Amino acid sequence: MKNKSAPIGVFDSGVGGLTVAREIMRQLPNEKVVYFGDTARVPYGNKSKETVTRYSRQIVRFLLSQEVKTIVIACNTASAYALDEIEKEVDIPVIGVVKPGAAVAVQATSNGKIGVIATEGTIGSKIYSKYINEIDPSASVVGKACPLFVPLVEEGLWQDPVTDEIAKRYLTELIDIGIDTLILGCTHYPLIRSTLGRIMGEGVTLVNPAYETARELKGLLEKEDLLNSQAAKLGDNKYRFYVSDAAEKFKGFANSIIKYGILSAKTIKIEEY
I want to staple 7 with a disulfide (CB 3.0 to 4.6 A). Which of 32, 94, 153, 225 is the partner? Predict the structure, then answer.
């Protein structure tokens, strides 16, 4: 018997995955969510595939201990490096954020020139190029690593002249190439979407994989007969948040991103999993 009322597990290297969790809460209001942010070890983008995969396995073991019914890897780097391994090792559905974003970018582009901004790890993996060219072999995909965006977002500098200046430096190359579609290939980046949109201009469509991932998750839950049709009861602990460090700082961030009143975030020793 499938437990439709079991929670969805969501994890990220830090606060960025909250953009995915927010979309899941919006689009799947009956679902419970257990979120883990690896705030002690953020960022993932400059770490090796082996390290990111090891971290991801530890987090997955923690989420399984919370009896989740499915797992969303709400981190592009972990999706690129660890998704295939995790899928083989667990017996519940697992999805990442890369495929949904790639599919929408192909639909959105008119001139076939698609830009991807992401961490060094995601760009180095060429995972977006792989998925995009599987759908449309003629598409031209240009990746640009933007390693400073994650720390800027984690520090709360979403609307700041420093972020503007860094963004201009990173994006000039993509503007010159003439892309018409830009994938925000890190879940932190939607938090500076207004800055990125202003610099790229109205002629460029920004693709937010967080939104598309929530849509794909809904389809997956329907297909697996796991969609929860029952609204949460009063007193249910519907949304639970865990981190590997700095719970109070995370809670402040989370409340600025998710407007559902996050009462607490609990620190756990993730290395023990």
Answer: 32
